[in-house]
Amino acid sequence: MSSFVPPSKLGVGFTYQRGLPQLLDSELIDFFEISPDVLCYENERNGERVLEYHPELLEDAIRETADRPIVVHGLGLSIGSASGWNESYLRALEILHARRPFEWHSEHLNFLTTRYPDGRPLHTGIPLPVPFTDEALDLIVPRAAALNQEPGAPFLLENLAYYLPGVPADRGRDEVAFLNDLVERSNCGLLLDLYNLHCNAVNFGFDPYEALSRMRLDRVVEIHVAGGASNDGFLMDVHSRGVPDPVWQLLHWVAPRSPNLAGIVYELLEEALPLVGLSGIRLQMELLSEVWESHCVAKCERTAYVVS
Predict the structure, then answer these.
(1) Residues spanned by the domain of 60
(2) Average pLDDT for residues 89-105, to the nearest whole number?
(3) Do the Cβ atoms of 84 and 48 come closer than 8 Å?
(4) Cβ proximity of 262 and 9 under 8 Å
């Protein structure tokens, strides 16, 4: 038997971007989500890509978010790489936590690195889905379990938007079944990205509500919403627009069914700020606050779920 104890509820959050906190209405944002990767630059050491903080960017992030909680969302851990994950990201995570403790941290369920036959590292250039197999579970479960213990904050894994059909799977297991097995065995939580789910549902033709009905919603700690672009009808995972109606509908459906939901984040790329604008960000945050007030505030008691 193992117990899953969710973190305290925070409310609604926004992607941290340098200089932006001073421009936004503080009452609309309960917390910020920081990606350590964007505060770093890459060096190459012994053929490996190593992350190191820009001191000025790190100090600004700590200062500009000092009045609100933060959570961490990693981009480059590559938790599913058979050749090994990104150790330099783990060091960056530890440095940030020592300077500015966070409520929880998360990563994508994907892999970004592999190796050439001669052993040289190869970056894929795009996040790729892990196979939904027992072998992949055996690789990722101990990694997720370790991250759930260190650096002293709960760890979440996020469902991925992917573009390759026919991902290898054992016994017909899809991503939802794989995530359920993963959180059961590792005791970590879920970051449910509803825009990623929407993209996959449209691109591969499945019912997102049916998928959600099978998901371990008691393990959902955070939800991401976003909007993006399409290419010839193929939805792309880029955070460059307001949240589309189908994603709002998914959020209204899933939020009251997720008893341990602790935060909802509107994701937006820095490059997309001119497209959405400050008024557009405020509108998205106001709508998120309405969802939170309607579905989540009444369920603020912390609950420990015991699973076998």
Answers:
(1) 2-307
(2) 95
(3) no
(4) yes
